[in-house]
Design a protein that fits this description.
The chain is of the alpha/beta class. The protein has helices at residues 22-33, 52-65, 80-88, 91-94, 120-133, 149-163, 176-183, 204-215, 219-229, 233-246, 256-274, 277-288, 294-298, 303-315, 334-340, and strands spanning 41-45, 69-74, 102-105, 109-112, 137-142, 168-174, 196-198, 319-320, 328-329. The protein is 49% helix and 11% strand.
């Protein structure tokens, strides 16, 4: 019986084979575990399929195993504050750390908080206060931040907790455009000053080594495969997944139709559908360019408007502007997608 495919194309799950992001992991660990603590929040951002969720889960798993840490994994939908309050009210926390829900009212009477939605903020503050006195720290994670009333309520409370010097930490993920939308909310500086880690392409040498070891291919073929992925995390998984399932592959070209279809259906279609008409137009200009020079791609487009779109697509992780005077796509075979398939995903 053949082994299970070690590559995974399902989002939100940690694959068996992956390239670790040790630098980013170490930044988060050393900052949160450091003394004194300089930051209590990190935002992981990058294009869809760049591995944000996998890194988030890895960090949550790590801190879950750390002494004196409690990890609460929230979803961006639903009542976030109620979920945190209910998580803190779990018997293994209240009993283990001998937590009291008694609070002082107007400095006169002691009242036991009843666990209901109207008391969520009071419960969170009270439990965190007691946990802080016992040397505990709390990590809250949220995958795919969006600008919702629930997320705004959480951000407002988190700011207050930081102001009260509570040992609470936050690690979240989000697409560039969603982070920008959220951090511009009036009176919320939650994300404005938050350190952001943009997930760069994976190390091509590490990708090649993984392919060579797992798929038992030659060094030259594994290097070729790594180049095809452009270091894009989902492409690394997708190409490995297809190669494993194919069994015998004479030429990588025979995998390209399925590779293109997987990229389109899983990532590029959604990415393209969410783009503005102006951003799509710039992508078409890049795809049609022979020299990939800024001068040719810009044409007679107004410079200010062109630069705004170029910066936005760069920060979204769609294009690469590292080579002076050149613009190329940062996503593998995105040019082929635009030429052959993109029209299917336009609303």
């Amino acid at each position: 019986m053949r082994e299970k495919n070690p590559f995974m194309v399902t989002f939100g799950r940690e694959p068996i084979e992956y390239v670790r992001r040790d630098v980013q992991s170490e930044i988060i660990k050393s900052t949160f575990l450091g003394d004194p603590v300089t930051d209590q929040i990190f935002i992981l951002t990058g294009v869809r399929g760049s591995g944000k969720t996998v890194l988030l889960y890895q960090m949550a798993d790590f801190f879950e195993q750390e002494k004196d840490w409690i990890t609460i994994r929230c979803t961006p939908t639903g009542d976030i504050l109620n979920f945190i309050a209910q998580s803190l009210l779990q018997e293994n926390i209240l009993k283990k750390y001998n937590i009291s829900l008694s609070v002082s009212v107007a400095g006169i009477a002691q009242v036991n908080l009843q666990p209901n939605a109207s008391n969520d903020k009071l419960i969170i503050k009270q439990v965190l206060r007691e946990l802080a006195g016992k040397g505990k720290r709390i990590l809250i994670t949220i995958d795919e931040i969006t600008n919702t009333p629930q997320m705004q309520d959480f951000a407002s409370l988190f700011q207050a907790l930081i102001g009260e010097k509570m040992p609470v930490y936050f690690l979240g993920t989000g697409l560039y455009e969603n982070i920008m939308d959220f951090q511009n909310v009036h009176n919320l500086t939650f994300l404005y000053r938050a350190p952001k880690i943009t997930l760069a392409p994976l190390d091509p040498a590490a990708i090649a080594r993984t392919y060579q070891k797992t798929l038992h291919v030659s060094a030259s073929r594994s290097a070729h495969m790594a180049r095809l992925t452009l270091g894009y995390s989902f492409a690394f998984q997708a190409l490995g997944f297809l190669y494993w399932n194919a069994g015998e592959v004479k030429s990588l070209e025979e995998l390209m139709p399925d590779f293109d279809m997987m990229l389109a259906e899983s990532v590029y279609g959604k990415l393209w559908g969410d783009m503005s008409d102006m951003d799509r137009q710039l992508c078409h200009q890049i795809a049609e360019s022979k020299s990939h020079t800024v001068k040719e791609i810009r044409g007679d487009t107004d410079s200010n408007r062109f630069n705004q779109r170029r910066i936005r697509l760069k920060k979204q992780g769609v294009i690469n502007t590292d080579r002076r005077g050149k613009i190329t796509f940062a996503l593998p075979r995105f040019e082929e997608f635009i030429r052959n398939t993109a029209f299917l995903y336009e609303g």
